[in-house]
Design goal:
alpha+beta, six-stranded mixed β-sheet
Length: about 140
């Protein structure tokens, strides 16, 4: 498996340690990223994939935190799972999206699907189709 590259300090053997159960992810985003990577998914953080879409891949993006009405202690964080498939392979989009959702169901103690899934659209900048599946986690707000 390929080594994970983070923009912040994480040992190079993080993925293997995660698989072995000796590394605990520090954030929900990292937990999702490492789970997908451990399943062999080609996964990136935002703006890290370079070039055209020649094979399917995923971008995991933290889209923000919102407090619950009337509370300054608890809220929810959303994550976008942005799915890309090559322009020449539209028929693989739905099965690939379903596979990713199946993988993420393993994290049901940490995240839940919101039910928001965008339509499949062609992204000419990467020469591929894209679709976003939104997930949510509940968390204590940082003060």
């Amino acid at each position: 498996m390929a080594e994970i590259s983070f923009k912040y300090a994480v040992p190079g053997d993080t993925l293997q340690n995660y698989i072995n159960g000796t590394y605990t992810p520090r954030t929900v985003w990292e937990r999702v990223f490492l789970l997908l990577k451990s399943k062999g998914v080609d996964v990136y953080s935002p703006a890290q994939h370079e070039g055209k879409c020649t094979s399917s891949y995923i971008v995991v993006k933290n889209t923000g935190t919102m407090g619950f009405q009337g509370s300054n202690k608890i809220g929810s964080q959303t994550l976008d799972i942005i799915i890309y498939c090559p322009k020449t392979n539209y028929s693989s989009m739905e099965p690939y999206t379903t596979q990713i959702q199946d993988f993420l169901s393993e994290l049901k103690d940490y995240i839940r699907p919101t039910g928001n899934i965008t339509p499949v659209v062609l992204d000419d900048t990467v020469n591929g189709y894209t679709q976003t599946v939104e997930y949510q986690t509940f968390q204590r707000l940082r003060r």
